[in-house]
Amino acid sequence: MFAAPSPLRWSLDEVNLSAAALALFDYCPRLFCYVYLERLIWPAADAFEHEVEQQRGRQFHRLVEWYSRGQQVEPRLSALDETVRQWWQVFLASPHAQPQGRVLAELPLRQRIEGFNLTARLDRLVIAPGSLHIVDWKTERQRPPDEQLAQDWQVRLYPLLVCGLAHQLPLEGPFEPEQVQLTLWYVQHPQRPFQWRYSAAAYQRDLAHLKATLNRLRQLEAQDFPPLPYGERCAACLFCARCHGLMGQGIPNQNLTDWVWAAQEPSGEEMPEAEWR
Predict the structure, then answer these.
(1) Cα–Cα distance list, 251 to 45, 81, 128, 137, 241 (Å)
(2) 237 pLDDT tier (thresholds 50, 70, 90)
(3) Suppose 135 and one of 87, 124, 216, 221 were both cysteines; which one would form an S-S bond, judging by CB atoms 3.0 to 4.6 Å apart?
(4) 37 closest CA partner among 218, 207, 198, 209
(5) Per-residue pLDDT tens for 52-100?
(6) Under a CB-based contact definition with an 8 Å cutoff, are residues 109 and 166 in contact?
């Protein structure tokens, strides 16, 4: 017996739209509604394995943050997962261990666009004369092809927000979008980073694409996010029963938890305004 829809539903004006949220909306608008507006959660069958991988990723990100802020890292290593300690050695051998410029770590960005709150948290932003270098640490096992990464919302949104907020950054001279570059650095594929050079044309293209997506969000909100026709994605979705009355494939048929609601917005903690020093 499934629970009724949450009476406490967020509106689009209340949600912080991250790259992950936009990607989920592209994948399935109805699923976006369940996760970001109704805030439904139902753990997957492989939740434990997924959590282990996420925990390793968080540990690695925290190590790089401490290192970037000039804090001692070595005393903390013994308490961490062996895989994370190996990743750390790979990082130390990379050019990113000695960045050339001013480093801002775990930098929150927020910009209001078309009435929506667009947010991001940059793992690292390196500011040098004539250069703004966004670096994002990736701990995934698989490294997607460049063609796929070039269309990723993270690759589109991060440079766009940096351009929109560049007037707040401690720059040494005038700003041009051509100064922005982005690197996705895969610790399990350190010799195959994804690198992206930005431009004024790319900024206008990404801004137009973002505005079109936000307009579609408004339109589907007015229609209460109708479910997509049943298809392959639906068969593997944990929320299949809510849309089509069918249990998704691969979902355990016993000891199921009921629908529960998140205590806070799933896009993450409320981001503080950035402090530029």
Answers:
(1) 7, 30, 50, 31, 11
(2) confident
(3) 124
(4) 218
(5) 888 999 999 999 999 999 999 999 999 999 999 999 999 999 999 999 9
(6) no
Which strand (E) or helix (H) includes residue 109? strand 102-113
CB 187 within 8 A of CB 60: yes
pTM (2 d.p.): 0.85
173, two tokens? 């001279």
Q: How many residues does the chain have?
A: 277
State the CB neighbour count (10 A cutoff) for residue 200.
11
Residue type, position 215, single letter: N
Query: Alpha helix (H) ranges present in the chain?
Result: 19-27, 29-32, 47-68, 74-77, 82-92, 146-149, 153-164, 200-222, 232-235, 240-244
The structure tokens listed for 61 are: 């990100």
What residues contact residue 62 under an 8 Å CB cut-off, 6+ apart?
none
3-state helix vs strand vs coil in the chain, percent to 5: 40, 20, 40
